[in-house]
Amino acid sequence: SALGGAGSGLEGSMSALGALREAAGPRPLFGPLEAGDEEQQQPAEIESLCMACLRRGVTRLLLTRVPFFREVIVSSFACDTCGWSNAEVQSAGRIQERGVRYTLAVRAKQDLNREVVKTDCATARIPELEFEIPAFSQKGALTTIEGIIDRAIAGLEQDQPVRKETDPGVAGQIDEFLSKLKHLKEVEEAFTFVLDDPSGNSFVENPHAPQRDEGLVVTHYKRSAQQSAMLGIQEEESDEKLVEPEDDLRNEVLQFNTNCPECNAPAKTNMKLVQIPHFKEVVIMATNCEVCGHRTNEVRKRLVGPGLAREVSSALPFTVFLPTHLQVKSGGAIEPLGTKITLRVTDPSDMTRDLLKSETCRVEIPELEFEMGMGALGGKFTTLEGLLKDIQTLVEKNPFTLGDSCTPGRTEKLCAFSRKLQQILDGQLQVHFVMDDPAGNSYLQVKSDCRKFV
Question: N or C: at which end does the chain have fewer Cβ atoms within 10 angstroms?
Answer without folding.
Answer: C
